[in-house]
Amino acid sequence: MQKLKCTVSYDGTFFSGFQIQPNKRTVQQEIENAIMQIHNGEKIRIYSSGRTDTGVHARGQVFHFETNLTIPESNWKKAFNAILPNDIYMKQVERVPMSFHARFDATQKEYRYFVLNSKEPDVFKRNLTHHDPWENDIDAILVACEAFKGTHDFTSFCSARTTVKGSKVRTLSEVSCKREGNELQFILKGDGFLYNMARIIVGVLLEAGKGNLTTADIEDMFQKKDRTVVGKTLPPTGLFLWEVSYK
């Protein structure tokens, strides 16, 4: 028996998220179907670093599984990509110690959110960016980014439907934004993210960029610990799970 760690990218447009759901197309189901083919019909469960929602993409999602097959690591990658649909691509497969766990051993996750900041939409980017036609001040956004860095209780910045029962305290090591042409790219790195947290934070940052919110307003949102005092959740189309880091 050996354990394999896999890094996979996918276009989330036509998936109902990562996690298996009855009668819906999910990334996990497609990957487990591929593994079952490689194992001649044997069902094997995979364990990911975390879920992504419907429509959310990944550049570096990580999962692990156990296998009795003794296939070279490079051949695993070839086998996966020969079977997987073209909106999933296996980037790397490597053998890891049996103690490894894709979720519990992760030390940091990086999300990126892409905003098309132009008056006109681009139909070719509609599934990979969020279109915002209003003018945004990048300097005001960067000032607002500072309010999110560090350790905070993010109760106000996660969905009311979150299943987390315990602490909503998380630490963000980076919250930044850069403009490339007519696109804004938001980068968020932290030790963990709550349900819809990244999309809600970027929504707040865009409001700051329009002059509708100040740092004091954001600090007040933290203090109130109430989802209703924060604005809307941005759509999933612009969000990517960019990278998962391990020791």
What this model shows, in words?
The protein is 23% helix and 31% strand. By secondary structure, the protein is an alpha+beta fold. It folds into two domains: 2-96, Pseudouridine synthase I, catalytic domain, N-terminal subdomain (Alpha-Beta Plaits), CATH 3.30.70.580; 107-246, 2-Layer Sandwich (Alpha-Beta Plaits). Strands 1, 2, 3, 4, 5, 6, 7, 8, 9 and 10 form a ten-stranded mixed beta sheet that branches.
Please describe the structure with a list of short key phrases separated by commas or semicolons.
247 residues, alpha+beta, Alpha-Beta Plaits, 2 domains, ten-stranded mixed sheet, 5 helices, 23% helix, globular
How is this fold's topology laid out?
Elements: E1 2-10, H1 27-38, E2 47-48, E3 57-67, H2 73-83, E4 88-96, E5 106-116, E6 130-131, H3 138-148, E7 150-153, E8 169-180, E9 183-190, H4 197-209, H5 215-224, E10 239-246
Helix pairs in contact: 3-4
